[in-house]
Amino acid sequence: MGHAVTADLRGDLAAFLRRPWFWRRDQQLPVVLVTGDDGPSVVAELTAPFVDHLPTALVRDGEQGSVLALVSALAGPRGQLGRPVGGSFLPPPRFPLAQFVLWAAGQHHAPEPQSHEGYQDFRRRLRDRRRGPADASLRLVADFFIGRAALTWVPIGTIVVWLLAGPTDLVGVIPWVLGALVTVLGIGGQGLATIRGWFFYGWFRRQPVLRRNPWERLAWYALRLANAGPEEIERLAVNAMCEDLRQAYQKWRIPWPSWGRGLYCLLRLQIADPHGVTARFLRLLEDAAALTGRPVPVVVVASVPEELADPRPIAATPLADITGHVATWRREHRGRRMPVRLVIGPGDHAAHPGVPHRFRPLAHQARAWIYWAVVLAVLPGLIIGFVVVNLSDRAAHCGGLPYVDRVGGECVGVVNAAEPAPDGLFAKPIADLVRRIDANNAYAVESEQYVTLALFGEYSVRQTAQDDTRFPSMVSELTAAEEYQRTLQNPLRLRVLIVNAGDNFVHGGRAADLVARLADDDPHLVGVVGLGRSVGGVEQAVDRFDAAKIPAMTTTATADDLGIVGDRPSPYFFRVGPTNFREATLSARFARRTLGADTAVIVQDGTADDTYTNNLADDFATALTAEGVEVGAPVAYGASGDGMSGAVARACDGGADVFMYAGRAREFVGFLKSLEGSSACGAGVLKVVAGDDVIRVVADHRAEIAAMTQTEVYHVALASREMWVGVNPTGFVTSLRNGAHPDAADDNLILTYDAVDVVYRAADRAYRPGDDLPSRGDVLYRLARTSGPSAWNGSSGVIDFGHGERHDPVNKAVGVMKVEERPTPPLVRCGPLDADERPARDPLCEKLPDAP
């Protein structure tokens, strides 16, 4: 590079003042020495475009009587470098190290450094300084506590809340308390440590001048500084000021204003006396950089006599030689540890007449804007993100319910575990009953002596057809549970939790997992009641309850192997209703011996995952074959078979004597209508025997079905108010026979009442006032021993689980009923309704099996 003649060097100075981007390291900055008689005016002209945009100071020779006074003018409580800079959007640099040294050096009448009295005196002085430092203004406090510490600890506290709030089973207030505690302690600790200087005082142990000894108390160290020689204390003061500037530009691992500083500091010196205070300060400043090899983030522009421009640390380079090539010069000096001098000689600089230097602060403010953008992303962004995630989490958990997940449009899990179930979860008839159950729960919880049952059902059921009986079945189950809970008068109260497994129990496994998690948190939970349909979701739930060791009592689920987990009967699974095998055997005997059928055809739902219909169809086939009835090929309708019309036509092809209906209730009336109007079935009365699922739809269409001339309809009943003829009924059945709940599905209503009763009785038998409440183990023990002399009369018949591995009810009441215009008693009933009732003599009931 050749020597330029005369140039405007302000652009080059601007290049030195501009800080590299975030990913670049800070480098050594030059000391620019201006020589010649017009040096002060050249310095003023060179630096004029920049003084309003960055931390700057002007020192004139002779204004300060000592180096310490000069350092105080620059970095003291009211120092020039610590003044706010308009438009920088950042707090000014702070000088806790330099101010500590200045304070210690300025203590008059310093005691002997080794005297205990001197130490105590300095402890008092240091304490007084901490209590009321000269720079402890509100602005300073706001700067350190809010502008610096809060930007770090509010996000950290928010993250603590975020992480701890993830597990929804935690008490809701704990994450907020811990997050607030972390935030307050972090802001307070960092703010105090920063404003008092403790955050930086470790530097005194790492620097070579008047080094602070390990474990040396700060008061002892201050006393030693007060007694130090002038040369050492001056050097330490300058070094401390340089370190404070480094800290102001340090790239911390936490959000700190230093990341946003886009311009270095500018120090302007006017030196006339080469042996004066300002000249000594310049030498100490250069020594500070040379001593550590670490860059000091300040560009010095000084007008000096010729003799001070001589090479000192290294050879000085004319600034005019690198005009326009500052970036190249900086790359060449990137690894240099020693400070560098650049010299502007007489005539090297000349501003272009009438052309002011255009310094663009926006380019340097961009760094501050990026810093604040990151801060906004970290602080409000994190908080907003937390709120969004929390709201999403609340939505995912249906308004923040602790044991509920939103799956699709359904709220799956325990909807009233922590508080009454919110509105809008279920249809009005179900919601009204849940609200009444929650009101009963409040009384139970208030008594403090209560056990909890989980009522497991498909309460968000979507009624897809007029004769879809699932909705009234759920209403009936809730009605039974609410009435039992409300009328209970024992000292041990009952709390009922509502567990929604989704439409068609499709989320039964997930709902059971949530119940199991609740059981880990709530020792009051002693069992689960419901599980009312033999479908895949209920099978998954039974498996989960077995793994969690939670007693589960099914109501109207009749599939034979529902309680089989792996290859063994689950010891935790019980049922109050008869199995498919028992009702299929009675149906087959009735078809053969009462109806005189020699041939039969089985009509079933073609849905592959409907355990009930597939199992009942198989049991029909087995039982009919055992009775000597010829069974034709099964006829399926629905998802994997023909439509109903096609299925009826196929069923009629063989001319069967009886149609065994193993399908679901919602298609039953359509099946009967197709059968009634079909020409393929020929003349004569067609006899239909249906499974237990149709009881509700039969009640709704009784007159229509009874009026059919070509079809005669019979069905199995698991529990019905009409079955109680000639037997002393229970109080609940008495109310039903007197007209209570006329629109309820009797089997769901009565069997749910008994299921709740049997689990509660087990808990009540284990309950001893004054002792611990019954556990799930206590309840399981009592349930397993509900047999023989311990059996009792339920509203669905005698409750007796026998002594086998399977907990199917022994000789449970089941009947076959004919559909008439008005309700009639069963044509045949097997199994006692009362333990004192004489055994039935009907040959259809002889050795009627309980299970396969």
From TrEMBL:
Q: Which UniProt keywords apply?
A: Membrane, Signal, Transmembrane, Transmembrane helix
Q: Which segments show compositional bias classed as Basic and acidic residues? A: 835-852
| Residue ranges, annotated region (Disordered) | 823-852
- The answer on whether this UniProt entry bears the keyword tRNA-binding reads no
| Residue ranges of domain Leucine-binding protein in the record | 538-783
The regions listed as transmembrane in this protein's record are: 140-164, 176-204, 368-389
Q: Can you tell which superkingdom this protein's organism belongs to? A: Bacteria
**Which InterPro entries does the UniProt entry name for this protein?**
BCAA_transport, Leu-bd, Peripla_BP_I
Family the entry assigns: Belongs to the leucine-binding protein family.
Q: What is the name of the protein in this document?
A: ABC transporter substrate-binding protein
